[in-house]
Amino acid sequence: MKKFTFALMALLAFSFSLKAQQYVSTEPTNRNVILEEFTGRNCTWCPSGHVIANQIAASHPGRFWAINVHAGGFSPNTFPNLNTTDGEAIRAGFGVTSFPSGVVNRSTASAIGRDQWTSQTNTQLGQASECNVAGRAVINPQTRAAIITVEVYYTGNSTADENFLTVAMLQDSILGSQTGMGDNPAQVIGNQYCHMHVLRDIINQSAWGDVISPTTQGTLITRTFEYQIPETIGNPNGTEVDIDNVFFLAWVSERQQGQTTRPILTGCELQTVYGSDEPIYPAVMGVSQAAGTTCSHTKDIEIAVQNLGTEAITSLTVEVELDGQTQTINWEGEIPQYGGEKLTTAMEVPFGTHPIHATITEANGTAFTNEGSGTVTCFEWQDLEIEGDEEELSLILMQDKFGNHTTWRFTASDGTVLGSGGPYTLLAGGTATQIHLEHVTVPANECVRFDIFDEMGNGICCMYGHGYYIVKDSQGNVLFGDEDDGEFGESATHLISVRGPQANVNVGETMVSNISYTHADFIAPLECEVYPDQVGFECRKVTSSDPLIINGFYNEFHNILGFTDELEMSTIYVVKAFAIVNGETFYGQETTFQTWMEGVDELENTLKVYPNPTSNVLNIEGEGMSSIEVYNAIGQRVMNIEVTGNSTQINTDSLNNGVYFLRIMANDGNVLNRTFSVAR
User: Fold this and answer.
1) 194 pLDDT exceeds 50?
2) pLDDT of residue 679
3) Which of the four, 48, 52, 150, 648, has the lowest number of CB atoms within 10 Å?
C-alpha cells in the first residue's frame, strides 16, 4: 500500500513570513524530541524499552513523542502485522539489527540502547531549535479523508539550505501478542498486549520527508496534504486502522554534508479534529453513561456531539432510545466549527448491560440525520442500613498461586478510592493458596463500588488454586461473594448502597415573584430535620431538557430562596426547588411561569386559547399566526402545526392528561407562549 499526497490549490508551495501563521509559534524555543523506537512483537526485552519511553514521555508532556517502529527480524507478519514499508526503510537507514534500540532526534549515526535514551533526550531538550512546527489534521469520519496542514517557522538559520518535512500517522491501542509483556503490565489487557504509538504510515512520498526551503530566520512555510486513511495497513494479515485512535506527528530534519540520515531539528503532535465540507454537519461521536456510580436505575446519559460542518450549530433535536423508551433532547446554544458539546438526559436502565442509540433528527431548525450507539450498564446493588456515619467492611480474599495478578479497590460514587489492595505474592506450588483479611471504612449515604481484577483474565480459581472473595459488614453479615466466587475472568463488580439514618425531608412547591424580561425570584418551603448540604432551584425552558441551576440559600424561616437574571424574554419556564441532604437530592413540585414580552403586537391582542382545560379539541384564534408547536411537561415537542388564517384547532385525543405548552409563531417573527391542560 502506498499513500497519496497531492496539492490543494497551491498547497505544496511555501509561503514567507509576510503570510500570517495560524498554528505555529514565532517565539524561539528549544528542541522537542522524536524517539524512533525499533521494536517487534517477538522481542523479549522490547516491553522494557516501552516502559522507558513511556516514562520519558510522562516527564516531558508535549515535548517528547515515541514512535514504535515495528521492523526487522523480531517483527513477524502474522496478525496483527504492524510492519510497514516506511518503517523498514527507516530501520535500514540506521542499520538497526539490535532490539530494542532507538534514535533520539536522529542525533546519532546509528541506533542506541534503551539505557541511553533518557540522557540523550535531556541533551536534545536543552538545545535551541532553529524552527518551530505546528498544525492540524481534520478527519472526515464518514469518508476517512484527512486534510493535514503543517506550518514551519524558522526562528533561526538552519545549517543546511534544504530541510525535510515529515508527517507520520501513528495508532494507539492495537491489541496483539508480545513476548516479554510481563515487563510492562500497564499495557497488558487480559492475555494480550496493548501496542501504543505504532507507526502506521509516513504520508509523504518518501519515508524521509519532503524538501522544504528556504531555511533562514523569519521564513514561514505552510504545507497541506490530502490523505485517505486506509481501512487496514499490512500485507499479509493487515491490521485495522481505527480513526478514533490515530494521531499525526510532524518533524523537520536536515541532512548534513556527508551524512545519509537527517538529524531532527524539532517535531510536534498535530491537533486532530473531525470535520467535513458541509455547512451543517453535527455528528454523534459517542453515547455513554456519565462517570460516577449510582445505586439507582436512573442513569445520566451523555451524547457527545461534534460540529463537523463549516457553520456553527445553534440548535439540535436528538432522539435517544433505550430498551423501548425514547427521550427527546431539544438543545440550544452554540457549537463552533470543530467544537463539541455533551448533551445529557436521564433514563431508567434495567439491570445488566444494554445497547443505547442516539439520532440527531434536526439541526439549526432543519431536518438532519446522524446517529451513534453505545452501551449502558446498571449493576445490581446490595442495601446496607447502618446506624452511624460510617461502616467498616471486611474483605476475605483467598488468592490463588498468581496473587501477583490480583488487585481490588473500593470507590465512592465520585471515584474517590476508599481502599485498595494487591498485588499479592506469587506462591510456590502449582495450586497454592493464601488467605488475606482486609478492612475498609465506608461513609453512610454513599453508593460504594467494589472491583476485583485479575491481570491475566482468568480469575483466582481452579487451575492454580481455589481462590475466592467475600465482603461482610461489621456485624459479620455477608454482603456478596462466597467460596465459589473466584471464576470472574478479568474483573468483577459489586455495588453497596450504604444508608445511614435518614432525615425527613419535604421540599414544597416553588412560588415565583418579581418576574420581568430576564429576572425572577423563587421561594419554596423546606421541612428538614437537619441542615441541608445544598439548596437551590432547577429552572428550564419547556422546550429544553437542559436546566439552569440556580444556587439558593436556606433561611431561618425554613424556606429556600433564590433568584436569576439569566432568563430569556417571552419564554415559558418550569422551575422546581431542590435540597441535598446527606448526599441525596430531594425535589419539590414544578411550577410554570412566563417572562415578559417586549411590546405588544397584533397577535398578542387578539390571541384566544379555549376551552382550557380541554378534553379533545383546543381552539386557537389570533391574527397573524404562522405555526404552532406543542410541548409536553418534560420539554418534548409532540406536535408541529402550520397555520393558515386566523384560527385553528388542535385534536388532543392523542395527548395524555396533564399540562402542555404552546409556542405560537407570528408572521412578524414574534413568539407567544401559552399553557393549556388536557383533562378527561
Assistant:
1) yes
2) 87
3) 48
Whether residue 597 contacts residue 569, with contact meaning beta carbons closer than 8 Å, is answered with yes
pLDDT tops 50 at residue 18: no
What letter does residue 54 receive in the DSSP assignment? Answer: H
The pLDDT of residue 6: 32
Residue 447: its H or E element: strand 446-454
Q: Distance between CA atoms of 126 and 120, rounded to whole angstroms? A: 10
Q: Provide mean pLDDT across the span 567-581.
A: 91
Q: What is the CATH number of domain 505-594?
A: 2.60.40.10
- Stated as kind and residue range, the H or E segment containing 586 is strand 584-587
Q: Do the domains spanning 381-499 and 505-594 agree at the CATH topology level?
A: yes
CATH fold for domain 602-678: Immunoglobulin-like (2.60.40)
322-328-334-340 Cα dihedral, nearest 10 degrees: 0
Give domain 282-378's CATH superfamily.
Answer: Immunoglobulins (2.60.40.10)
Supply the CATH classification number for the domain 33-274.
Answer: 2.60.40.10
Single-letter code of the amino acid located at 301: I
Residues 456-475: tens digit of each pLDDT: 778 998 889 999 999 999 99
Instruction: Answer yes or no: are the C-beta atoms of 343 and 316 closer than 8 Å.
Output: yes
**432/435 Cα distance (integer angstroms):** 11
Nearest-CA neighbor of 316 among 368, 276, 372?
368
Is residue 103 within 8 Å of residue 112, measured between CB atoms? Answer: yes
The DSSP symbol for 311 reads S
Is the distance from CB of 411 to CB of 418 less than 8 angstroms?
Answer: yes
Please state, in angstroms and rounded to a whole number, the distance separating the CA atoms of residues 461 and 404: 14
CATH number corresponding to 381-499:
2.60.40
- Residue 380 and residue 351 in contact, taking contact as beta carbons nearer than 8 Å: yes
Are the C-beta atoms of residues 469 and 436 closer than 8 Å to each other? Answer: no
